[in-house]
Amino acid sequence: MPMTEQATGAHHPQPRARTGGQPSATVEHLTGAQSLIRSLEEVGADTVFGLPGGCILPAYDPLMDSTRVRHILVRHEQGAGHAATGYAQATGKVGVCMVTSGPGATNLVTPIADAHMDSVPLVAITGQVASKAIGTDAFQEADICGITMPITKHNFLVTKAEDIAHTIAEAFHIASTGRPGPVLVDIAKDALQAQTTFSWPPTQDLPGYRPVTKPHAKQIREAAKLITQAKRPVLYVGGGVIKAGATAELKVLAELTGAPVTTTLMALGAFPDSHPLHVGMPGMHGAVTAVTALQKADLIVALGARFDDRVTGKLDSFAPYAKIVHADIDPAEISKNRTADVPIVGDAREVLADLVQAVQAEHTEGRTGDYTAWWKDLNRWRDTYPLGYDLPEDGSLSPQQVIQRIGKLAPEGTIFTAGVGQHQMWAAHFIDYEQPATWLNSGGAGTMGYAVPAAMGAKAGAPDRTVWAIDGDGCFQMTNQELTTCALNNIPIKVAVINNGALGMVRQWQTLFYNQRYSNTVLHSGTDTDGLPAKGTRVPDFVKLSEAMGCYAIRCEDPADLDKAIEEANSINDRPVVIDFIVHEDAMVWPMVAAGTSNDEVQAARGVRPDFGDNEDD
After folding, report:
1. Which of 132, 162, 409, 594 is the most buried (most CB within 10 A)?
2. Active site residue 3
3. How much is the pLDDT for 614?
4. Dmax over Cα atoms in the chain, in whole Å?
5. Which entry of 189, 243, 323, 494 is annotated as an active-site residue?
């Protein structure tokens, strides 16, 4: 069956003869396992995160001899997957992880799903039981192709040694072209052990896989006309702009048109936060100005974005006055959630470059947009409802202040990763992102435990950059064992644990929607004899735990010590550093649009609905 851009399902490669017209290659006789490692070398994979086990073990023997592929031994397969994702997001290259069959492979399911939701180029290599044992419930057997079918861009089951080289080449091609995504290659143990021949480059055969990258000229012209005719346009920028390396073209288009720019959680850094045209991040916890700009717009130009529910709020009330130009590399995304008036299928970089030319042509004909009144409204909202926070009355540490100071004191070009929850939103709001690929987070899946292994992968891929993981105490307890991996492999990341003693975002919802009934969200304490939380107990003690894993650890509780602790962490580069920031437990993330409600109901703070002067705007 021909394979489409988003095709999924286990593909059983067929052996094929080499065709003419390609460079001649030296044929080598080796094992399937050696062919796998040679293939990884040839596709340019310089780093593999993994954990060996029985069925993948044949591949680990020749890996030991490779001088071109660095293997980083993780402590949990989930860490391997998130590290490969962090590596890919920081470098723009394909991330690679390699684990064994059964539970090794199923431990990759979460990071694969995470990469799929966030369109991250990932190749996951898994061992499988011997081909004749497949389907017999053999020891450590799991149908990982079947399990991951809905969450991979494509996957392969390889049962013959001669298929390994071309399958790896195809996997890397699929993962990195079109809409990037995870590809799984499941290799039977006997295929790794069998003898075969190796030559490079192999013949690739991917019928039906032809991602459209060049946008249709007529649609581009229509989009340009709408931009110049609009009174209240917004450029709604998603992570696809960063994936396409299109940030320079975005800046040209924005400055050419003068339209406001909103960057989603996945697109922070695609357009400089400090740029006067930038009105912030939209969404459930987005800036009031960004949320309102989309609601009041008469034209939304969506670029590499997918009208996610966290951005739109209640979908049938989202942007009621707006025509939609929707440009995306994946045709399945266009009109999926919001019908597009002008659909454009293409690579974001080519779309933006063509849009710039088309808008310039409109300007040459004397047709330019007048957004004076629009910017008067936008600037009023921006001035009236800026992002901010209150310091705790008891003099304790504010989590927002902690994160803001980390951002201010970080060296230029620092990469930030975040877990999921309150600290993620505060990191999105209170750190300034001026460059692409400096903000890595789990946007679509919202994966707790992402930050530490993703920071490890980012630092492995960009060793000359400072990497800070902003994590919550709940997230940190899911994957902090990878600090051991960092310590033993000279990967000196820095981790800020925003320790409020609770599952913070869940606690916030319990405060707002469940009458302050804090069911199973307290993390930090045991209980006294009266059943109430014990004061002053820390289980675990993150400083002792981090030190046991080979890290330098600091605890910071006093605002007076904040800058000193951060500067100390920035000065240490020979090992990982963890700072346990003890912060106020009642801090909340604002602004907020309650789940299931319209973005018109955005609250700037608790109980504070902005006055937008609706009558004069509509």
Report:
1. 162
2. no
3. 61
4. 81
5. 189
According to the model, what pLDDT value does residue 25 have?
Answer: 61
Kindly provide the residue ranges of all beta strands, DSSP E only, lying in 120-181, ordered along the sequence.
122-128, 154-158
State residue 528's pLDDT score.
Answer: 47
Cα–Cα distance for residue pair 361/76, rounded to 1 Å: 55
Tell me, what amino acid is at 375? W
Residue 439 backbone phi and psi in degrees, to 5: -130, 110
Is 139 a residue of the active site? yes
List 6, 140, 229, 435, catalytic entry: 140
The answer to whether the CB of 113 falls within 8 A of the CB of 106 is no
Of the residues 28, 132, 139, 204, which is catalytic? 139
Annotated active-site residue 505? The verdict is yes
299-303/278-280 β-pairing: unpaired
- Find the catalytic residue in 5, 77, 249, 350: 77
How far apart (Å, rounded) are the C-alpha atoms in residues 444 and 307?
12
Alpha carbons 434 and 535: distance in angstroms, whole number = 41
List all residues 6 or more positions away from 129 whose beta carbon is below 8 Å from its beta carbon: 55, 101, 138, 139, 140, 141, 188, 189
Q: Which residue out of 284, 505, 549, 588 is catalytically annotated?
A: 505
Q: What is the pTM of this model?
A: 0.93
Say whether 77 is catalytic: yes
What is the number of residues in the chain?
618
Dist CA 193 CA 399 (whole Å):
53
Distance CA 451, CA 474 (A): 11
Task: Enumerate helices (H) and strands (E) in the chain, giving the number of each.
Answer: 24, 21
Q: What is the mean pLDDT of each run of 10 residues along the chain (618 residues)?
A: 41 43 69 98 98 98 98 98 98 98 98 98 98 98 98 98 98 98 98 97 94 97 98 98 98 98 98 98 97 98 97 96 98 97 98 98 96 98 95 95 98 97 97 98 98 98 98 97 98 97 92 93 64 63 97 97 98 98 93 93 90 58
